[in-house]
Amino acid sequence: MSATVVPLPPNSSSETTGFLRRMASMVSGRNGEMLLRAASLIEALTQRAMTAERLYHQQQEESTRHVELREAAELASDAMVSQIEALRAQLAEVTAAAAAELAAFDIERGKLLGLMQSAESHIGTLTTELDSLRASIDSFHETVVAVPIEVLRLARTQFDYLSAGFAGKGDVISQAMSEIGGFAIDQALTVKKTADKV
Q1: Residues contacting residue 182 through CB under 8 Å, at least 6 positions apart
Q2: Rounded Cα gap, residues 46 and 4, in angstroms
Q3: Which one, of 13, 12, 11, 33, lies nearest residue 23 by Cα?
Q4: What span, in angstroms and rounded, lies between the C-alpha atoms of 92 and 98?
């Protein structure tokens, strides 16, 4: 329970002490001393009361300031708590988004690894086929000789010439062999023309 401070009326103590001092000057002996002592005591008590009143007002102002500071601190604390909650919510959202992106990345990485393994397997198959084709081409090259087309046409003309010459001499076997040679060249040239069209 707080004490109620009643301010002293202005100049009341100075009037009282002045009256007591005047009285002490009129009274002699112990009564005069008592009156002077009472005046001094009143002055001292007045000083103490004024000091106490000043201290009370200072404390009241400090208390008011402390209350205002506490209210401001509570408001700032509430604002900080709200900001912290908002930041926690944002952090949770960012964490969830990052987890989703990581999961999507892992799925995509798995797909790419599967594609890469499939590609490696396909490359292995193609390499095996290519090696097989190379072996076939190498064995084919062992049995075939590359000849320019003009040389084949010239040879065809020579087979025709020989066939006609053998026919004129009556050499049917040599004529047949010449015609077979010409026919073989015709087949080679026909296969070449077909391959060029494709």
Answers
A1: 156, 159, 160, 163
A2: 17
A3: 33
A4: 10
How much is the pLDDT for 67?
92
Task: Answer whether 13's CB lies under 8 Å from 43's CB.
Answer: yes
Kindly indicate the confidence band of residue 35, based on its pLDDT and cuts at 50, 70 and 90.
confident
Taking residue 42's Cβ as centre, other Cβ atoms within 10 Å add up to 16
Q: pLDDT class for 6, splitting at 50, 70, 90? A: low
Q: Which residue has the tokens 């072996």?
A: 135
For residue 68, give the amino acid letter.
Answer: E
pTM surpassing 0.70?
no
Q: 3-class secondary structure for 138-173?
A: HHHHHHCCCCCHHHHHHHHHHHHHHHHHHHHHCCHH
CA nearest to 2, candidates 46, 67, 59, 66: 59
- Tell whether the torsion through CA atoms of 42, 45, 51 and 57 is positive or negative: negative
Q: How many residues does the chain have?
A: 198
Domain ranges of the chain: 146-198
Q: CB–CB of 157/189 below 8 Å?
A: no
Angle at 96 between CA 95 and CA 102, to 5 degrees: 90
